[in-house]
């Protein structure tokens, strides 16, 4: 008896992707294309999105359903990032865009934790696998960058430095596991509005090239120009030149953070957390200052606005301590919901 065994095509593929927190986010002045050159360190955390892509009849097109605690906040049409990702794979490969997508959200919506970007990354990988398109990692990353600055990191996961728009990634070696608590607000903040307020606070509007970025610690420095370290000003190249070159702020400023990650030292990591967008997010949502205060009273090792906010991230000594910080937020009525997670978490993975 002879014969070939042909594997039946999988009827569906499920891909899991993580949310993120920016351990450091430094921004230069806005570029001509409306983006800001960043120097950021992403850490993926164990809050996951799951996207399932299922075969449908030829010609059926793309359809989308969403589940999870904040599903009602997410668009269900072709503006959804998962839908746009499926379309991008079809356009790139010339395949028919026939797929039923289901998104299960485990990352807060519009919270500065890149849940939408995680959906885009998951949908890229799921459609590539479902349609047997054979896209390379590089092609997926390129398609992801076209969908949003945060999407390439959701593919990669773990911990990475991001420069350019945040989409040029270099993996960072880390040791051990870090424990986080997150205070999520009922109403999200839009990323463009936070960057716009950052520009206003920087005296940026109408004065490209002469910009200064205000930092949440009260220090002010020239945007795009090399940052100050230890009170010393390094001058090479002007801010105007840096703005036009779209140069990212110097990641060299974050040597202490890198050492803390390598050593797996949460206390040192807590001291090195920093977000240039924090002042803008707190300016738009003054109540966030109190959320950070509550975390400090609960003994956090460090607290900051996650990305463009309004989620507040607090680094804890242990899982137990993360739960204690979350409980303190709940008791103070400081958050709509509280979440705990660990980082780093892996990037896009096909389940099953
Ligand atoms: C701020 C960050 C930090 O990781 O994340 P979130 O807090 O939104 O999750 C990211 O830079 C957000 O990335 P993402 O949300 O993918 O941004 P995109 O969709 O590409 O851009 C939305 C808008 O944000 C602004 N933007 C984004 C990235 C960047 N480097 N400079 C910008 O000025 C621009 O106004 C852009 O039109
Ligand atoms: N799949 C998606 N999940 C969540 N939001 C989405 C999605 N697709 C589009 N969006 C839109 O993007 C906005 C921000 O998305 P999200 O990634 O959750 O937050 P952030 O950019 O703050 O990290 C949402 O308010 C929503 O309107």
UniProtKB/TrEMBL annotation:
Region Disordered: start-end pairs: 206-235
Catalytic activity reported: 4-CDP-2-C-methyl-D-erythritol + ATP = 4-CDP-2-C-methyl-D-erythritol 2-phosphate + ADP + H(+)
Residues binding ATP, per UniProt: 108-118
Keywords: ATP-binding, Isoprene biosynthesis, Kinase, Nucleotide-binding, Transferase
Pathways involved: Isoprenoid biosynthesis; isopentenyl diphosphate biosynthesis via DXP pathway; isopentenyl diphosphate from 1-deoxy-D-xylulose 5-phosphate: step 3/6
Enzyme Commission number(s) of this protein: 2.7.1.148
Statement: the UniProt record of this protein carries the keyword Transferase: yes
UniProt GO molecular function: kinase activity
Keyword hit for Membrane: no
GHMP kinase C-terminal domain: residues covered: 257-334
Enzyme class, spelled out: transferase
Gene3D superfamilies associated with the record: 3.30.230.10, GHMP kinase, C-terminal domain
Main function: Catalyzes the phosphorylation of the position 2 hydroxy group of 4-diphosphocytidyl-2C-methyl-D-erythritol.
Name the record gives this protein: 4-diphosphocytidyl-2-C-methyl-D-erythritol kinase
Gene transcribed to yield this protein: ispE
């Amino acid at each position: 008896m002879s014969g070939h065994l042909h594997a039946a095509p999988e009827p569906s593929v499920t891909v899991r992707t993580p949310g993120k927190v920016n351990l450091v986010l430094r921004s230069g002045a806005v570029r001509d294309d409306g983006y800001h050159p960043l120097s950021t360190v992403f850490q993926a955390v164990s809050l996951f999105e799951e996207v399932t892509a299922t075969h449908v009849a030829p010609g059926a097109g793309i359809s989308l359903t969403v589940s999870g605690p904040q599903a009602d906040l997410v668009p269900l049409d072709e503006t959804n990032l998962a839908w746009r990702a499926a379309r991008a794979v079809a356009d790139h490969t010339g395949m028919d865009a026939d797929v039923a997508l289901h998104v299960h959200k485990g990352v807060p919506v519009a919270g500065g934790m890149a849940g939408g970007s995680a959906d885009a990354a998951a949908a890229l990988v799921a459609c590539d696998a479902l349609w047997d398109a054979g896209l390379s990692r590089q092609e997926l990353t390129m398609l992801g960058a076209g969908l949003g600055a945060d999407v390439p990191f959701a593919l990669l996961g773990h911990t990475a430095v991001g420069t350019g728009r945040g989409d040029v990634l270099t993996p960072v070696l880390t040791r051990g596991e870090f424990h986080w608590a997150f205070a999520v607000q009922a109403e999200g903040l839009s990323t463009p509005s936070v960057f716009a307020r950052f520009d206003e606070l920087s005296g940026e509007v109408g004065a490209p090239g002469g910009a200064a970025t205000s930092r949440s610690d009260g220090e002010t420095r020239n945007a795009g120009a090399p940052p100050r370290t230890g009170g010393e000003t390094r001058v090479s190249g002007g801010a105007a030149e840096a703005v036009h070159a779209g140069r990212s702020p110097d990641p060299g400023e974050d040597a202490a953070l890198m050492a803390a990650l390598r050593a797996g030292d949460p206390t040192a990591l807590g001291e090195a957390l920093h977000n240039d967008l924090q002042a803008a997010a707190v300016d738009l949502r003054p109540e966030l200052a109190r959320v950070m205060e509550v975390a400090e009273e609960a003994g956090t090792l460090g607290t900051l606005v996650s990305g463009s906010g309004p989620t507040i991230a607090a680094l804890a000594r242990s899982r137990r301590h993360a739960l204690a910080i979350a409980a303190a937020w709940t008791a103070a009525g400081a958050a709509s919901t509280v979440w705990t997670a660990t980082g780093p978490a892996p990037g896009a993975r096909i389940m099953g």
